Amino acid sequence: MGVMLLVGTRKGLFLLGGDDERRSFEIEGPLLPGWSINHAIVDPRDGSMYACANSWVYGGTVQRSTDMGKTWERSDGLGLPEESELKLASTWHLEPGHATEPGTLWLGCEPGVLFRSDDSGASWQVNEAVLGHETRDRWSPGAGGLITHSITLDPEDAQRLWIGISAAGVFRTEDGGTSWTPANSGTEACFFPDDRFPEVGQCVHKVLAHAGRPGRLWQQNHCGVYRSDDGGGSWERLDGNGLPSEFGFGIALDPGDPDTAFVIPEEGAENRVTCDGRIGIYRTTDAGASWELIVAEEPAWAAVLREAMSQDAEAVYAGTQSGHVYALRHDEVVEAARHLPPILSVEAATAV
Amino acid sequence: MATVLLPGLLATEAGGRKEFDVDAATVGDALRALPVRDLVLDEHGEVRSLVNVYVDGERTGELEAAVTAASTIRIVAAIAGG
Questions:
Q1: Measured between alpha carbons, how far is B76 from B55 in angstroms, rounded to an integer?
Q2: Of the partner residues A34, A56, A79, the one whose CB lies closest to the CB of residue B42
Q3: In the prediction, which pLDDT does A181 show?
Q4: In which band, very low, low, confident or very high, does the pLDDT at A351 lie, cut at 50, 70 and 90?
Q5: How far apart are CA A120 and CA A110, in angstroms?
Q6: Of A223, A230, A301, B70, which has the fewest CB atoms closer than 10 Å, so is most exposed?
Q7: What pLDDT, in 10s, does the model give residues A286-341?
Q8: What single string gives the DSSP state of each residue in A212-264?
Q9: Which CATH architecture describes the domain B2-77?
Q10: Cβ-Cβ contacts under 8 Å, A88 against chain B
Q11: ipTM for the whole complex
Q12: Which residue of chain B has the CA closest to A56?
């Protein structure tokens, strides 16, 4: 089965249609020209396409298409209540709800807020528990802003999910979003001068739950790579096991193997380029006990943003800020596209 | 009916129309009558900071500014390179 990659860029959305072997890709786009696409998905439950489309003049929106991008409809009424004294700055991440909740979607936004839709994105309701979280005064924005960039669901329990906010940390709900508990025990905030293991304030860059093993989470953080086997109750640090750096943004998982994960480390917070003059994809197959390098390209000094790694059952995909997309399948790396605008996100969907 | 002129991206979002005739006594009335009001105004009803509004060639930031049936309201987006 082929794949369709949704590649969000600073200048519109591109679709890359890949063949069964992930060796040949055809480019379509740009869709939504004039918009900066932080993230785009296809909802596997009904085939609708959604995009976090942002404009530095006109603000953050969600756009929905039911004809694979030919026409789009903008969500209505996306904003924050006046009494919050906050304004929506941008839209960042879309996540289809649980399979048992058709029509439900989650949306992460700046400034550190979460929305839920129960009508397939036609309208959105802000999550009051995140908006008014008792630790919010200890959150601080990262380089991308105070952004809710990760939303990841428990595979079995629709009431249980996790969000990641930079720089606030990981939060877990067990009640469908009515309340949120910090889930940062054991993750470091290495940029703090004193308390480096606070309750909140960690700069999580991406957190993902494995769909095949409830409670297993992976996290690429500003200060390390981590795995949790208890739903974020505790985290084990993994970047001392063969990674060239603790720093990176994206992380990808193998949907068929909860012990396999992929990261693309960067040199550090003060020099955000891939390590050692190459684009190196590091893979673990033993739950982070060791990592092996797969070179995608060298020489290269690139950057892969937090939404710009994805995976399906066949391959892992990564897009760079220099506009290249790579597909890794069976130790073979294929360049799927080059010279696109700066890439903000890559998401894999089943080809139709 | 006052006339509102939209720049490119707003016109695209308005279904391809660059010009709207609206019943309006104020600039705010005119902007709130647009199908792209959520892009021009933020969720608190204020003009977005990088949206500029001109009435008959004069820039105004006042939603209460009066307009007439003969007024032309032009929306201009802030522009920078890159």
A1: 11
A2: A79
A3: 98
A4: low
A5: 21
A6: B70
A7: 999 999 999 999 999 999 999 999 999 999 999 999 999 999 999 999 999 999 99
A8: TSTT-EEEEETTEEEEESSTTSS-EE-TTTT-S-SB-S-EEEETTEEEEEEE-
A9: Roll (3.10)
A10: 42-43
A11: 0.95
A12: B50
Domain regions of chain B by residue span: 2-77
> What is the average pLDDT value for chain A, to the nearest integer?
96
User: B34 CB near a chain A CB, below 8 Å?
Assistant: no
Write b or e for each residue in B51-61: b if 16 or more Cβ atoms lie within 10 A of its Cβ, otherwise e.
Answer: bbbebeeeebe
Distance between B73 CA and the closest CA of chain A, angstroms: 18
Judge whether A96 and A42 are in contact, CB under 8 Å: no
Residue type, A189: A
Per-residue pLDDT at B53 exceeds 90: yes
Whole-number CA gyration radius for chain B = 12
| Cα–Cα distance, A94 to A71 (Å, whole number) | 19
Handedness of CA A232, A236, A241, A244 (dihedral sign): positive
- pLDDT (0 to 100) of residue A10: 97
Please give the pLDDT value at position A106.
98
Burial class (CB in 10 A: 0-12, 13-18, 19+), A168: buried
Calpha distance A224→A241 (Å, rounded): 11
State mean pLDDT over B64-68. 95
Domain ranges of chain A: 35-306
CB proximity B10 to A under 8 Å:
yes
Of A215, B17, A188, A292, the closest CA to residue B5 belongs to: B17
* DSSP symbol at A142: B
Q: Could you please state the CATH topology (level 3) that the domain comprising A35-306 is classified under.
A: Methylamine Dehydrogenase; Chain H (2.130.10)
Count the neighbouring beta carbons within 10 Å of the beta carbon of residue A84: 16
**A67-A68-A74-A77 Cα dihedral, nearest 10 degrees:** 90
Touching check for A55 and chain B: CB below 8 Å? Answer: yes
Please, are residues A167 and A150 in contact by the beta-carbon 8 Å criterion? no
- What is the least distance, in Å, from the CA of A304 to any CA of chain B? 20
Q: What is the mean pLDDT of residues A163-174?
A: 97
Structure confidence at residue A245 as a pLDDT band (50, 70, 90): very high
With CA atoms as reference, report the closest residue to A324 among A4, A2, A9.
A9
